[in-house]
Design goal:
Layout lengths: L3 E10 L2 H29 L6 H9 L12 E3 L2 H9 L14 H13 L6 E3 H4 L8 E2 L4 E5 L2 E4 L6 E3 L6 H30 L5 H7 L1 H4 L17 E12 L5 E11 L9 E9 L3 E6 L4 E5 L15 H30 L1 E7 L3 H6 L6 H8 L1 H15 L2 E5 L16 E2 L5 E4 L3 E4 H11 L1
Parallel strand pairs: 10-13, 13-14
Antiparallel strand pairs: 1-7, 1-9, 2-3, 4-8, 5-6, 6-7, 8-9, 10-11, 11-12, 15-16, 16-17
Helix pairs in contact: 1-4, 3-4, 9-12
Length: 438
């Protein structure tokens, strides 16, 4: 049976300067992507202009002429050949932050979409939409549980590699260990050349020092095992909004999960999952319900100085310490949910929590404990087990009785729901049962 390819996100915690560089990379990648699209529109409209000339023109501050969305296009095959042949060495300096891997991926995706269809309206054939995510691929690598390395940045970026199910975190750390072994072998081979009378070999090693230096300081104990999850070559950079409300950069790795690594869903029932602060989660199936209790009283942490990478790392260490108090319960809960053939999960409205809810700090507290990670974990692995997942709007789920559907009363501190027929019930259990009903 084939492997499953799944998307595994890692949130980055860069310094202010690193965040600025990441934003510049996203901006340059979109600029190149849209420039290629505009040039392809021109070529498909009959304008004779080489790709190199078009890139130089844009770099000089002269935008390419517009082609109307309704224009009928016929793209010559030679234009696709020019796109395929473009390399990072051909680009003017305005795209100087883009790595060879990113340029190659942008060119490949634009050429690929046009291989089987080169005629049609401009808006359909070559829409001028920005990238959903920037392909990074070989230009980014995990270093350890707390850092990633990115081409073009001299220092590692603090990252939440640790905030994953253990088997998926290991998939990234296995890749990190393999990179460490390759770096050490590279240094060993270069030193052998020096001993043989080629001291100039050090020049290339110096040029790669920022890539390999950090790796030489760590141990490499994990080996690639094709029977366990392992990393594929594809990585994307995107911008997302966290539960606490801030926008952050996030890497999305592609991981191969071998068939059979996790058992297929076998319970022919629907499980409802209510997420919260008092309990990380409350689950209910047809016959039972149970809580996953919170293990700490920590709701938030002081913010670190965004210009200080050491403070960012200490902040990550503290967040992981809180998270690890809940990891065993989260991993078990994940396994339980994925054993059901159908799962209804609470679709959390973090904006509503912050702006209108009684507990505006709840999103941050749930992120810190790992409660908000549970939904993402299930979504990552649902295709591996065959669990069908449905996201359910929780509005009103704790204010109606799951047995008779009559309106119920909730009084502060909102831990009990009172039905006029069935009496007092745990509010989280009521929520899980109503979410289960969808």
């Amino acid at each position: 049976m084939p492997n499953h390819l799944i998307s595994v996100p890692t949130t980055l915690r860069p310094t202010t300067e690193q965040a600025r560089r990441l934003s510049d990379i996203v901006q340059q990648a979109n600029h190149l992507h849209l420039t290629l699209r505009r040039w392809l529109r021109l070529r498909a409209a009959g304008v004779v202009l080489t790709l190199r000339a078009a890139l130089d023109q844009v770099a000089a501050g002269q935008p390419l002429p517009d082609v109307h969305d309704r224009c009928e296009l016929q793209l010559p095959a030679a234009a696709l050949d020019e796109v395929r042949a473009l390399t990072v060495a051909d680009l003017p300096q305005i795209w100087g932050l883009l790595s060879p891997a990113t340029v190659r991926a942008i060119c490949h995706s634009n050429a690929k979409r046009l291989e089987n269809r080169r005629t049609g309206r401009a808006a359909e054939l070559l829409p001028l939409r920005p990238l959903n995510a920037v392909p990074m691929d070989a230009s980014v690598q995990p270093l350890d549980e707390f850092h990633i390395l990115l081409d073009g940045l001299r220092t590692p970026i603090v990252a939440d590699v640790w905030m994953l199910p253990a088997d998926l975190m290991d998939a990234l750390l296995i890749a990190a260990d393999e990179q460490t072994r390759q770096a050490r072998q590279y240094v060993t081979d270069t030193c052998e050349r020096v001993i043989r009378g080629e001291p100039s070999a050090l020049t290339a090693l110096y040029a790669d020092a920022s890539k390999i230096g950090e790796r030489l300081l760590r141990s490499a104990t994990r080996q690639i095992d094709q029977t366990r999850p392992h990393r594929a070559d594809y990585v994307q950079l995107r911008v997302v909004t966290e539960p606490a409300g801030g926008q952050v950069h996030q890497l999305v790795w592609t991981v191969r999960v071998p068939y059979g690594h996790r058992p297929l869903a076998s319970i022919d029932d629907t499980i409802g999952v209510d997420l919260g602060v008092r309990n990380l989660a409350t689950l209910a199936d047809d016959s039972s319900d149970w809580h996953v209790p919170r293990q700490t009283t920590t709701w938030d942490l002081p913010a670190p100085d965004p210009d200080d990478s050491h403070q960012l790392l200490i902040h990550a260490l503290a967040r992981r310490a809180v998270f690890e108090r809940h990891r065993a319960d989260l991993e078990l809960t994940l396994q339980q949910i994925l054993s059901y053939r159908r799962a209804h999960l609470e679709e959390l409205d973090y904006d509503g929590m912050r702006d209108h809810g009684r507990v505006p700090w709840a999103g941050e507290a749930m992120q810190l404990s790992g409660a908000s990670s549970l939904t993402g974990w299930v979504q990552m692995l649902k295709d591996v087990t065959g669990t069908r997942v449905r996201m359910v709007d929780p509005a009103g789920t704790s204010s109606r009785c799951p047995h008779c559907h009559r309106p119920c009363r909730r009084i502060s501190p909102f831990v009990v729901t009172t039905c006029p027929v069935h009496g007092d019930m745990d509010a989280d259990v009521v929520g899980a049962r109503m979410i289960r009903k969808g």
